[in-house]
Specification:
Layout (H helix, E strand, L loop, with lengths): L30 E4 L10 H22 L3 E9 L2 E8 L4 H19 L2 H21 L8 H43 L5 H5 L8 H17 L2 H9 L2 H8 L6 H14 L18 H10 L7 H22 L5 H30 L2 H17 L14 H9 L6 H14 L7 E3 L11 H10 L15 E3 L1 E4 L2 E8 L14 E4 L15 E4 L7 H9 L3 E3 L4 H4 L5 E5 L4 E4 L1
Parallel strand pairs: 7-8, 8-9, 9-10
Antiparallel strand pairs: 1-3, 1-4, 2-3, 5-12, 6-10, 7-11, 11-12
C-alpha cells in the first residue's frame, strides 16, 4: 500500500505518481480520508454527481434531528478516487458535551421503539418511494417525460437518503450500547462474545444467499445445465441454454431471482453493472456451488440461533442475584440490539441496493437512448458522465459526449490498478478528540470514517485487524478484488479482499474465512461471517497489498490476527 509522509499536524505528501491538485487551495489544509469500506474502486462520475445531491440533502435534514457530532461531510474526487472530510460540531467544551448528551438522549429514546419506527414509518416510506419508481414506464416514456421523472427522482432519492441516515445512528448505537454494557457486566469478555447473543436472526442478505443456493441445486439436477456451466465461460452459459427444453425451469427460476434481487451492483457504486444487466457474477457462483456437496442452510441458521439462545441463557444465569434494574437494562439493550442488527442488513437491501438500484435503471434508460442516437458509444458510458452532462444531452440531440465518456472510463481503468493513499491533505495534531465519546466509539465500531492518527506500521509475518468473527482457520489465500474474479474462489479458500458488500454474500458459502482491508465489527463482511460461522479479520489496511494469491495463511478471528505460514 502506498504511504505518505505522516507527521501529525503536518502536510501529507502523496507519492510522486499520485499527483494531487486542489481546486480550492484551502482544501490542502484539511484532512481527507478514503472510505474503502463502501467505495474501494474509482468512483463513477454519474454516481457521485447524483448522490452528492440526494445524500447531502438527506443528511442535512437528519443532522438537526439527532444533533449528530458530524455536521458536514465534504467529498472530493482525486485521480478518480473519492476522499472525504468530516466536519464536527465545534463550540466550547460545555456546548460539545451538552450536544453529545442530547444526542445520547435521542438515541436512547428511538432505540426503545426501533421496531415500531421501522414498521410504521421507515419501511412504509421506502415502499412508497419504490412504488413511485416501479409504476413509471421507463421504456414507454417520451424524452421530456423521462427528464421530468429524473428530476422528481432526485427529490425521492433525497427522501430515501433521509430514511437511510435516520436509521443509521440508532442501529449502530443500539448494538454498541449492548456490547459495551455486556462487556462491563462480564469482565474478560469481548464484543465478539456479546455478538453471540445477536446472531441467528434472518435478514434479507441471508435470504438472497439461500435463494441462490436453491438455484444451484436446481442447476445441479439438470445434466444440460450442469454441462453448460462446466464447459462454457459464464458469459456464454445463458445463451447456450435458451433453446433447451430441459433448462427452462432453471432459466425461469434464474429470471425470478434476477427480478427480485437483480437491480443491485457488486458494491455500493451503482455506476458499475448490475446483476440484471450482467448476471455473470450469479452464474459464476452457481458454477462454484454445484461442485459443492448439499447443505441445509435453514438448519445452519437454526444452529446459529440455538447457539445464541444458549449464550443468552448463560448470561441470564450469571445475572441471577444482580439488582433488578441491571437485569432489566440487560434485557432492554439485548432486545434493541437484536432488532438493530437485523435492520443493518435489511436497510442496505432496501435502500443502498434495491432503492438506489432503481435510480440506476433510470440513468441507464438515458444511456440506451443516447447510444441509440449515436450520442454515446454504449449505454453503460452514461455512468462516466455527470448529471449536468446528461441534462445537456437530453436538451440537445446533437450533443455528443462519447469521447468524454470513453476518456473517463479509460482513466478509471488506469487508476483502478493503483493502490491509492488512504489519507491526503493535512492531518491535525489531534483529530479524534474533537468528537464526543459516543461519536468516537460509533465511528470505530462502524469501520472508521475518521483517521485516529497514522496507520500502524506493518509487522513481519502477520497482519493485525479487528476481530470480526470468531474461530481459527488455515488455508489458501485467494485475492478477489471484484466479483468478476469470484469463480477463482474454491471451497476451503480464504477470501482476501478490500471490502465486501451484500452482493458478495454468496462467496461466504464457499470461503473458509474472510480477511479485508477495510471495515469494522458492523461491516458486512464481519456480520455475515458471524452468521455463517466462519472466522473473519477485518480492517487490516494491508491485506490485499501484503498477502499473495495462493499463499498459506492462518486467520485468527478471535484476536484479529492473520499469520503468514
Amino acid at each position: 500500500m502506498n504511504t505518505l509522509t505522516n507527521t501529525n499536524g503536518r502536510h501529507l505528501t502523496p507519492p510522486a505518481d499520485f499527483p494531487v491538485e486542489w481546486n480550492q487551495p484551502e482544501d490542502a489544509k484539511l484532512h481527507w480520508t478514503r472510505d474503502r469500506e463502501h467505495l474501494p474502486d474509482p468512483i463513477t462520475p454519474m454516481f457521485l454527481s447524483v448522490t452528492a445531491i440526494i445524500a447531502s440533502e438527506g443528511y442535512q435534514r437528519t443532522t438537526p434531528v439527532y444533533e449528530e457530532a458530524i455536521v458536514v461531510r465534504q467529498d472530493r474526487t482525486i485521480n478518480t478516487y473519492e476522499y472525504l472530510h468530516l466536519v464536527p460540531f465545534t463550540g466550547t467544551p460545555e456546548e460539545v458535551e451538552a450536544r453529545a448528551q442530547r444526542y445520547r438522549n435521542k438515541m436512547v429514546a428511538i432505540c426503545s421503539r426501533l421496531d415500531k419506527v421501522w414498521e410504521n414509518e421507515w419501511h412504509p416510506a421506502i415502499k412508497a418511494i419504490w412504488q413511485f419508481w416501479d409504476s413509471f414506464d421507463l421504456a414507454g416514456a417520451s424524452l421530456p417525460e423521462l427528464c421530468a421523472h429524473l428530476e422528481e427522482t432526485l427529490v425521492r432519492g433525497a427522501n430515501l437518503y433521509e430514511v437511510h441516515y435516520l436509521m443509521g445512528s440508532p442501529m449502530w448505537f443500539a448494538i454498541d450500547e449492548f456490547a459495551t454494557f455486556y462487556c462491563d457486566l462480564f469482565p474478560g469478555t469481548t464484543t465478539l462474545d456479546a455478538h453471540r447473543l445477536l446472531q441467528g436472526f434472518d435478514n434479507k442478505t441471508l435470504e438472497i444467499g439461500r435463494a441462490l443456493w436453491r438455484l444451484s441445486r436446481l442447476a445441479k439436477a439438470s445434466p444440460t445445465v450442469c454441462q453448460a456451466l462446466g464447459n462454457l465461460p459464464a458469459a456464454d452459459v445463458l445463451a447456450a441454454l435458451q433453446d433447451s427444453k430441459e433448462s427452462q425451469d432453471f432459466l425461469s427460476e434464474l429470471h425470478t431471482f434476477l427480478s427480485n434481487y437483480g437491480c443491485r451492483c457488486n458494491l455500493w457504486d451503482w455506476g458499475y453493472p448490475s446483476w440484471e444487466d450482467d448476471p455473470t457474477p450469479i452464474i459464476n457462483n452457481i458454477k462454484n456451488y454445484i461442485a459443492q456437496p448439499d447443505r441445509d442452510l435453514q438448519a445452519e441458521r437454526a444452529k446459529a440461533a440455538a447457539e445464541r439462545d444458549a449464550a443468552i441463557t448463560q448470561a441470564r444465569q450469571e445475572l441471577i442475584g444482580y439488582p433488578q434494574p441491571v437485569v432489566d437494562r440487560f434485557e432492554k439493550l439485548l432486545k434493541e440490539a437484536q432488532i438493530a442488527l437485523v435492520l443493518t442488513e435489511n436497510h442496505t437491501y432496501y435502500i443502498d441496493f434495491n432503492g438506489l438500484g432503481r435510480i440506476r435503471r433510470i440513468i441507464r434508460e438515458f444511456g440506451k437512448r443516447f447510444a441509440a442516437q449515436g450520442q454515446l458509444t454504449s449505454p453503460e458510458d452514461i455512468f462516466y458522465l455527470k448529471l449536468d452532462e446528461l441534462r445537456a444531452m437530453a436538451a440537445k440531440p446533437t450533443c455528443n459526449l462519447s469521447k468524454l465518456a470513453l476518456a473517463r472510463r479509460a482513466e478509471a481503468e488506469y487508476w483502478a490498478r493503483y493502490d491509492e493513499p488512504t489519507e491526503l491533505g493535512t492531518r491535525p495534531a489531534e483529530s479524534i478528540y474533537l468528537y464526543s465519546a459516543d461519536a468516537r466509539r460509533m465511528m470505530r465500531y462502524a469501520g472508521g470514517l475518521i483517521a485516529d492518527g497514522p496507520l500502524p506500521a506493518p509487522e513481519e509475518g502477520l497482519l493485525r485487524g479487528q476481530a470480526g468473527s470468531p474461530g481459527k482457520v488455515r488455508g489458501t489465500a485467494r485475492l478477489i478484488r471484484s466479483l468478476a474474479e469470484a469463480h477463482r474462489l474454491q471451497a476451503g479458500d480464504i477470501l482476501v479482499t478490500t471490502t465486501t458488500a451484500p452482493p458478495w454474500t454468496p462467496l461466504f458459502l464457499t470461503a473458509a474465512a474472510v480477511v479485508t482491508d477495510a471495515g469494522g465489527l458492523l461491516s458486512h463482511g464481519a456480520v455475515v461471517s458471524r452468521e455463517y460461522g466462519i472466522p473473519a479479520v477485518v480492517g487490516t489496511h494491508y491485506a490485499t497489498a501484503r498477502i499473495t494469491d495462493g499463499q498459506m495463511i492462518e486467520v485468527d478471528g478471535d484476536n484479529g490476527v492473520v499469520s503468514f505460514l
